[in-house]
Write a structure and sequence with these properties.
- With 362 residues, the protein is α+β, with helices and mostly antiparallel strands.
- It is globular and about 75 Å long.
- The protein has a nine-stranded mixed beta sheet.
- The two termini are 35 Å apart.
- The protein folds into two domains: 248 residues, Jelly Rolls; 87 residues, no CATH class.
- Strand 9 and strand 10 form a beta hairpin.
- Helix 3 packs antiparallel against helix 4.
- The protein has twelve helices and 20 strands.
- It binds 2-oxoglutaric acid (AKG).
- 2-oxoglutaric acid (AKG) binds next to strand 15, strand 19 and strand 20.
């Protein structure tokens, strides 16, 4: 008989699109949510075939092997030498082993979790339209701390021929030598050599102020900050692994987006409020963010050591390719790959205004 929870598992809400203010009011730092359309036509979802991934991964290790995990029980994967060991393997062999459908039932499982996003793949993710589609939702129109309207940044526009000549002539004798003509015309602070900051309200008639320039593009500065945080190549991770892999119950201290690119993943989440029911490892250990519970064993009533688990409130979903899951900081999650899978995680830190839940400090 499978374990009966006191509280029935609740399916995580799915929406096609979400307005930034709804995200801020209802989900950010509060509740998980799945967005079904926001990445469905993302380049990675359509472009990352096995051969393309092989090419990208070969560039990250031109002279040799990738480091991937194999699991000591061929199932549970967590970054801990008691549970996994590392294997050195060429990208080609690794991808063949993961995506080889002949041997599916008996095969050895592997998991690749990169420490940074390989360049080629990062370029596919970080193209402006994709960045914008995510930031529209995950960043609202106000400054997070002051509630004031923000400044916008003007990216270096393209000069028309006319202006090029005038700039070159005036540069010979101009007292403002060093400042380009477009910066002088806006008479504002120079940000760096490619951009300047202006007040949001001054941005409405920006094109009229720069009549001789093309491609005047505006970038909201707090968007830029969030872009640098969410689309941060060193923290973004690529996960490629075999059907049946399990990342057991744990929490992260950051906001997390899990973008599902290939295959399906089944997730079980619990709020940080359920921490006492989830039996974390002792707080001074390196495994404090992981649970002592293997959900599969407890669900099957093979392990009776964790009676409080049945009082927890599970939130569940099967994440499909092209879907994006938002997980708030300190929410526990357990992930099973239902297929051979490729995913991308995009974590970002809590703001200074967001606090660690009291129950996690105990
Ligand atoms: O996809 C997985 O196997 C684990 C993902 C995860 O733990 C995370 O996104 O924090």
């Amino acid at each position: 008989m499978p374990l009966e929870f006191v509280n029935k598992p609740v399916p995580i809400t799915r929406v096609e699109h979400l307005r930034p203010d709804s995200f801020k009011q209802r989900y950010r730092n509060k509740h998980p949510i799945i967005l079904t359309k926001i990445i469905s036509d993302w380049l990675p979802v359509t472009k990352w075939t096995t051969s393309y991934l092989q090419e990208a991964l070969e560039q990250t290790c031109p002279n040799g092997d990738l480091q991937v995990f194999s699991s000591l029980d061929n199932k549970l994967f967590i970054n801990n030498p008691e549970v996994v060991q590392t294997v050195n393997i060429s990208p080609k062999d690794f991808l063949n082993l993961v995506f080889d459908h002949q041997e599916q039932s008996a095969k050895q499982r592997f998991y690749l979790r990169t420490h940074s996003m390989p360049d080629i793949l990062f370029n596919d993710i970080n193209i402006p339209a994709q960045v914008k589609s995510l930031l529209d939702v995950f960043c609202s129109n106000e400054d997070e701390n002051t509630g004031m309207n923000r400044a916008v940044e003007v990216q270096c526009p393209t000069k028309t021929e006319n202006v090029k000549e005038r700039t070159e002539q005036s540069a010979l004798c101009s007292p403002d030598e060093g400042l380009s003509a477009w910066e002088q015309m806006l008479s504002c602070d120079v940000h760096d050599e490619n951009s300047v900051s202006i007040e949001l309200e001054d941005s409405a008639n920006i094109q009229q102020k720069l009549p001789h320039y093309q491609n005047v593009s505006l970038m909201d500065t707090s968007w830029q900050k969030l872009q640098a945080r969410i689309f941060n190549q060193p923290t973004m991770q690529l996960w490629v692994g075999t059907k049946g892999n399990v990342t057991p119950l744990h929490y992260d201290r950051n906001h997390g987006l899990l973008a599902q690119i290939v295959g399906r993943k089944e997730l079980i989440l619990f709020s940080h409020e359920d921490t006492p029911n989830l039996y974390p490892h002792v707080s001074y250990s390196e495994r404090a963010h992981t649970s002592r519970v293997d959900l599969r064993k407890v669900y099957a009533e093979e392990d009776k050591r964790f009676p409080r688990l049945k009082n927890a409130q599970p939130y569940t979903c099967t994440l499909q390719p092209g879907e994006l899951l938002y997980m708030p900081p300190f929410w526990w999650h357990d992930v099973t790959s239902l297929d051979d899978c490729v995913s991308v995680t995009l974590p970002w830190d809590m703001d200074s205004s967001e606090t660690v839940p009291g129950c996690m400090l105990a």
